[in-house]
Each structure stands twice: as structure tokens, then as C-alpha cells.
Specification:
alpha/beta, 6-stranded mixed beta sheet, 18 strands
Length: 425
């Protein structure tokens, strides 16, 4: 257990007095670690920090499991004085301010795209136990009901325990395969009815739902709403042909949002009937496949960069192979060149029940590719092999005359082994 934590967090953490704490000394009883991603200058982080302090204090004073949980602050602060002042308000531990490399690795590993974020991970294996710890703290502010062992690890429980729907399903739970869960978490003052992206996705999803059903494939959608009132939920749900978690069942809606760490709207998560995740990018998959030819939308090893999937560039490091698309048929050979490498990496991390540390794209010559080149200040060469880490504002460029599978594989291997020197974006 301690060896894993050292690999995850490093050998030393610090407390509010800047005193170093040996990670090995955290103790063999520790079973859960909350990774708290935040920044001292962020208003929501400061608000959440107060709630987390109350939760942590009560938990440590009253819970019989007090020695099994620890929280570690992972800051994105750029100013050490601001970081130190914020740390004074915390009772838990933190990564040292200067350990920027370790911080960035954790942000990428756990796909953190917004703050504050609290991710609970198993202290022995590092597997995600709960992606949305903010809701854990909100639902149990005193920590009285919380037990580290009570946070259900992924995947979710079997379907039949989770789909008591508003409407009567046309098929029995045993016949539903695969199943899609539509997760929605709203900004504080937002209402589903006033969310244009939600309504836009719903219109497309209604057609996709109809096409898949008419093709005879087993498929169901469950709407998990966070509308501010039952009237809003009822009105919006009346436009949908699928099922929904009852609005009155707030506990179950909250539990599902905690489990899948939903931080933005609209979100479409695809699961199979065993509760195993197919993809978190259901929205992108549905919008890119209006004829539903790729149903049930398993992740593709290599994506062609487009306006709809460009958001994934912000989810972690991405290998992007730029080619000269003015020459007919360049994109498909580029995909075929890097696909075996992408498939190999996906399989390796799937076997470990982890997400791949690298996404793969090919990009031609279009407005989206041009914008990406401009934003990251890349040369105009084609072909051009790059790895872009938008959250770290770092890029890695391999500008060679001929890009072969061996060149790509070595580039990926060196990146994962941290042998490449980054350039700033």
C-alpha cells in the first residue's frame, strides 16, 4: 500500500506548517485517499474548502474509520504565497508547491477538467472509487454517514437495482443491452430548460434513439436530471421517449452523479448491462454518427479531429498526427499507420482497468486543424507528429521527413517514460 502511495504522490507531502510528512508514515490502515484539486484564487474552491474543512474535522473526530481516510491538496496555484495562505486554512496534507510535475501527472491521470474537484481513490490500487467527492461532502457535510468502504467503486451496480423508471419500460431490464445513462449536473443558477446544448443534444438523441430501436437492437436511455424544480423536470421529460430516474428520488440521482463524477452539461455516458463503461464521450459519438452506424459507440482508437470532438484535446495528453489533406486519401492511411499503436496502448491499460494515458488523432488541413496549429504555435510542416498536453500548456514535436510506425511507437514510448523535453504552448 505504501509503495503505491509513494509512486502516486511521491515520498513527501507537507502540512499547513510546511512540515514534511513521510508518505510511508501515513500508515497501513489507510484505505481511501481524497485527491483535492483546486486553486486559492478560485471562488468556488474557497467556498468548497470551508465545507470540506467541516466534513474533515467532524469525520476525524467522530468516525470509527477516521484513520482510513486522508485528503491531499493538489494545487494549480502559480504564486507560492497564495498557495501557502490557502494551505493555512486546511487540516489535511498537500503536494509540495514546487512539485509541478507530479501535480500535472495527477491532473492528467484522473482527467480533472474543472475545479474544485475531489476524487476518491483506493489507497491500495489507485482505482477511482468516487469521481465526484464534492457531492459526497454536500450530501453528508458532517461525515457521520460516510464510510470509506461505503463509496461504491466503479462500475455501477447491476441495472435492475438502478432503473426504477418514471415510465413503464417496454422491455424488462434483462433485455436492455446496451444501456445509456444521460447524466446532467447543472451550474448553480441554471435550469435544464435554459441550456441550449442540452436541448440540442436531446433533439439529436431522440432521432438516434428511434433509429436504434427501429433497427431491432436492444437499447435504453435513462435520464438523470438535476432540474431545479419538478415542474421543469416534468416539462422537459415530456419531450423524451425514454426513461428517467424519478425526480423525487434525489438520493439515487445524487449517487449516480457522484459515481461518475459529472461536472458539466450535457453529459452522455454509455454503459453495458453489467454496468461497465463503454465511453464517457457519448455526446460526441452520437453527434458524429447521426445514422447510428457505429452503435453502441465503443471508443475508437484513432479519431479524425473535428469541431465536435476537439473538446477531448483538453482531457489529457493527445497524440495528433497532422497530414496534408489536400492530397486525396491522406487521412485514412494516417489512421492506419497509428491505429495499431493506439490499440496496443488501449488494450494495455484496459487490462489494468485504467484509462489510456494518451488519446490519438489525425488532423488534415481545415479550419479546426489550422486553429489548433495557431493556438499551439506549431510549424506548418506536413506530416507533423505531435503530442499536445493542453492542461500543462506543453507540446512535444517530432518533425521528421518520414513518419513510420517505428517512429510513432518510439515517440509514444519516450513520452510515457518522460524522456521527452516539453516546449511551452
Amino acid at each position: 500500500m505504501s509503495e503505491f502511495l509513494v509512486n502516486l504522490l511521491g515520498e513527501r507531502l507537507v502540512n499547513s506548517e510546511k512540515a514534511e510528512v513521510d508518505v510511508q508514515a501515513l500508515g497501513s490502515k489507510l484505505s481511501l485517499v481524497g485527491l483535492y484539486f483546486g486553486c486559492s484564487l478560485n471562488g468556488p474552491c474557497k467556498q468548497f474548502n470551508a465545507s470540506l474543512c467541516e466534513f474533515y474535522s467532524k469525520f476525524k473526530k467522530t468516525s470509527e474509520h477516521k484513520d482510513k481516510l486522508e485528503i491531499v491538496f493538489i494545487s494549480s496555484d502559480q504564486d507560492q504565497k497564495h498557495w501557502q495562505d490557502f494551505l493555512q486554512e486546511m487540516q489535511w496534507l498537500a503536494l509540495p508547491f514546487k512539485d509541478r510535475h507530479k501535480k500535472m501527472k495527477l491532473w492528467n491521470k484522473y482527467k480533472v477538467t474543472s475545479i474544485p474537484s475531489l476524487v476518491f481513490v483506493d489507497a491500495t490500487t489507485g482505482k477511482v472509487v468516487c469521481r465526484n467527492g464534492l457531492l459526497v461532502v454536500r450530501d453528508d457535510p458532517t461525515g457521520k454517514e460516510h464510510k470509506p468502504t461505503a463509496l461504491s467503486p466503479e462500475p455501477s451496480p447491476p441495472l435492475r437495482t438502478e432503473t426504477r423508471p418514471v415510465t413503464t419500460p417496454s422491455t424488462s431490464p434483462e433485455d436492455m443491452a446496451p444501456v445509456v445513462w444521460l447524466r446532467v449536473v447543472l451550474p448553480v443558477a441554471a435550469v435544464m430548460q435554459k441550456c441550449p446544448p442540452c436541448r440540442s443534444l436531446t433533439r439529436v438523441l431522440v432521432e438516434s434513439y428511434r433509429k436504434v430501436k427501429e433497427s431491432g437492437q436492444k437499447f435504453e436511455i435513462v435520464f438523470v436530471s438535476a432540474d431545479r424544480s419538478e415542474d421543469s423536470f416534468t416539462q422537459y421529460f415530456s419531450e423524451m421517449p425514454w426513461l428517467a430516474i424519478p425526480y423525487s428520488d434525489e438520493a439515487r440521482r445524487s449517487r449516480l452523479n457522484r459515481l461518475y463524477g459529472i461536472q458539466g452539461i450535457p453529459t452522455l455516458i454509455l454503459l453495458d448491462t453489467e454496468g461497465h463503461m463503454i465511453t464517457r464521450q457519448g455526446r460526441v459519438e452520437v453527434l458524429n454518427d447521426p445514422e447510428c452506424r457505429l452503435f453502441p459507440w465503443h471508443p475508437r482508437p484513432v479519431l479524425e479531429l473535428s469541431e465536435s470532438n476537439a473538446v477531448q484535446l483538453h482531457e489529457g495528453p493527445c497524440l495528433v498526427l497532422f497530414v496534408d489533406a489536400e492530397e486525396e486519401g491522406e487521412l485514412e492511411p494516417a489512421k492506419e499507420l497509428i491505429q495499431p499503436i493506439a490499440e496496443k496502448l488501449l488494450a494495455k491499460y484496459k487490462a489494468k482497468e485504467e484509462e489510456s494515458p494518451l488519446l490519438f488523432f489525425v488532423a488534415g488541413e481545415d479550419d479546426m486543424s489550422d486553429s489548433l496549429r495557431d493556438y499551439t504555435n506549431l510549424p506548418e510542416a506536413a506530416p507533423l507528429l505531435t503530442i499536445l498536453d493542453m492542461s500543462a500548456r506543453a507540446k512535444y514535436v517530432r518533425d521528421v521527413e518520414e513518419i513510420t510506425p517505428a517512429v510513432v511507437e518510439q515517440f509514444v514510448t519516450d513520452f510515457l517514460a518522460e524522456k521527452l523535453k516539453p516546449e511551452p504552448i
